[in-house]
Amino acid sequence: MVERFETESRKLLGRLRDAMASDDAGQERLDKITHLIATSMGCEVCSIYLFRDEDTLELCATEGLNKASVHQTRMKLGEGLVGRVAKRKAVVNTPDAPQAPGFRFMPETGEEIYSSFLGVPIQRIGAALGVLVVQSRTAREYSADEVYALEVVAMVLAEMTELGAFVGDGAAMSARHSQPVLLRGTVGQEGVAEGHVWLHEPRVVVSNPIADDPETEAIRLESAVGLLRISVDQMLSMAGGDKDQQQVIEAYRMFANSKGWMRRMLESISSGLSAEAAVEKEQSTARARMGQVPDAYLRERLSDLDDLSNRLLRILTGQGSDTGAEMPKNPILVARNIGPAELLDYGRKLRGIVLEGGSVGSHAAIVARALAIPLLVHVGRITDDALNGDHIMLDGEQGIVHLRPDDSVASAFRDKIAMQAAAQERYASIRDEPAQAKCGSIVQLHMNAGLMADLPSLQSSGAEGVGLFRTELQFLVRNQMPKRTELAALYARVLDAAQGKRVVFRTLDIGSDKVLPYMKPNDEPNPALGWRAIRVGLDKPGIMRMQLQALIRAANGRPLTVMFPFVAQFEEYRDARAEMDKTMAREERLGHVLPSEIEVGAMLETPSLAFAPRKFFEEVEFLSVGGNDLKQFFFAADRENERVRRRYDTLNVSYLSFLEGIVERCRDTGTSLSFCGEDAGRPVEALCFAAIGFRILSMRPASIGPVKSLLRRCNLDDVRRVIHDARDRGEMSVRAAVMEYVRAQSAAQ
Ligand code: PEP
Ligand code: MG
């Protein structure tokens, strides 16, 4: 019986392939296919519904339902039985459709006379493309073999849809990958970009979903799985003693040797699929499950299986991650996720980056920011929707991606780019002017950096120095701890590039979200409040000493500025400073030239430090407010948590009053004070910081122009009054009042 079913299924697939090979237009092919399926499965009705847009399905072909309803009948995702199949990516098999939950009567199709209903999702690697339905008059539940056969056919249809087999005359459904798509995400780095998709991991194209000879296909699959197992074993031996890596690869190995996985793929081959299509069918099922499993551990395992399936597909199709495709002009990188080192490899070639996963605080995001490349994270199903070379527009202000935009969208977008370019020109014209407000106060604008790649911006942005050099980036983008000589050479190059401008080197700020790939992660319940930054430096002084030595050697007789991160109490600063003094003495003994001047400061990132004894403010040589951390601790709102991150306004009066208190304490003791968190680069925020007394702001290079331009248009005495009045009125945030002032200023210009 099973054999007979397999022969039937193979016959049907063979006929489908002939239909595919014909010269018919897209619609004719679809019509033929529904006819073939209905006849071969002995059902009165066979219909194909495909996605028109993200949440609308359209009846694209039918055998048995009213032909006039083709391209007329539409339903939303989740609506009716068909919508239900698409939404859940799961089979619906019922002998009594009108009584089934979710049934929706569609008079135009004349379907109420059909009792039994079997719908299977048409999906390609977990991405839903449509629904394939068969219906019969007699009330019966379809057998497991029939369900399986229909799933196999759906799988082939998915491949055909992907290959554009149904694109054609006006009435036919256009292939999903030729339609414009708008996707939303979270901004990781502002900016707008237009270009062409460059897939970091190009999708594997299966052009032969149907095969004639199951035996050959089974042999191909078995030998590919053999190669896969060897490569997994090699990965295991390369992991060396790294336990975490070993665990991950052991899980891979378990899947690669799984009998169930192999058996299911061989079954698909017996029913007529090619080896590649059989792998993809399993992968689709795993992906569909991935979206539904609430348990994070299981989801991780399913994603291991997904990765393994990709490797197997690459072996079978001979398409490596390097497909030989040429990088398009103005490439915009599209990926599920990407590591910082890989991103650095691409460097400034990229016009933009769109990630399906990622996070605003991820290392890749830090690198993207350093390179000033617009970045969006959490962008829906971009890797399913985009094809290499697709036209793409990235709006890093609104957090929107336009994939294959139509002409009107593209031209509106270009207007926006032109406006930005005009603004850039305005900023360039004031590059060498001071950030002097109308009242005469001058604010020094410095830039934040972390990579050698940042340094050219020092000249182009007009920054007066580097107010924050995040040294951990050099540690994060490597696979092993950098050596002292390497660091010394790098820091020396940074100082060379700065050409005498001040560079504030912040010592390693690791822990929290910044976990070095070669350091055992600490399993801490709250890493942001955990063993991080100066706490690690003081507990494990070896790394800190090595870094301080490298800095002293890099300065080699030039002035040196060092800042310790995340200081929460006076003693931590004292201990770190003592470490610096000891290192200087040792370097001198070793015969190295000491810096001509040395300044040692601290970051104020915890509320506690604002209340440190006066003696601390007298001893510390300068302070820089790390607003990213300070704000999260002030409001107890995680900076990495999208849900609460933006809940509290930086211009909230409590926070501004707190910052004002810090300014006053520094003024009292004559301590130099700056602000180097992200907020310093937002013009209205920067204006308020300047109004409450900050005279040094450090920000991303791209923010210097907009901040300077606004400061030059405003009077800080007036802004201070606006802030105090809003506070006296009991407003929660001064933003509205300050914005009103800013608008009035702009109108008056
Ligand atoms: C900050 O916390 O504001 C800061 C500048 O440090 P980082 O963002 O590197 O934690
Ligand atoms: Mg910080």
Provide a descriptive summary of the structure in words.
It is a single chain. The protein is an alpha/beta fold. It has 4 domains: 2-173, GAF domain (Beta-Lactamase, 2-Layer Sandwich), CATH 3.30.450; 181-202 and 326-420, Phosphohistidine domain (Glucose Oxidase, domain 1, 3-Layer(bba) Sandwich); 214-317, PtsI, HPr-binding domain (Enzyme I, Chain A, domain 2, Orthogonal Bundle), CATH 1.10.274; 429-748, Phosphoenolpyruvate-binding domains (TIM Barrel), CATH 3.20.20. It contains 27 helices and 23 strands. Strands 15, 16, 17, 18, 19, 20, 21, 22 and 23 form a 9-stranded mixed β-sheet that branches. The chain has an 8-stranded mixed β-sheet with strand order 7-14-13-9-10-11-12-8. Strands 3-2-1-6-5-4 form a 6-stranded antiparallel β-sheet. The N and C termini lie far apart (85 Å). The relative contact order is 0.07. It binds phosphoenolpyruvate and magnesium ion. The site of magnesium ion has 4 residues, from helix 22. Magnesium ion is lined by residues 605, 626, 628-629.
Q: What is the molecular shape? A: elongated
User: What value does the Rg take, in angstroms?
Assistant: 31 Å
On the 0-100 scale, what is the average pLDDT? 87
Level-2 CATH architecture of the largest domain: Alpha-Beta Barrel
Give the CATH topology of the largest domain.
TIM Barrel
End-to-end gap: 85 Å
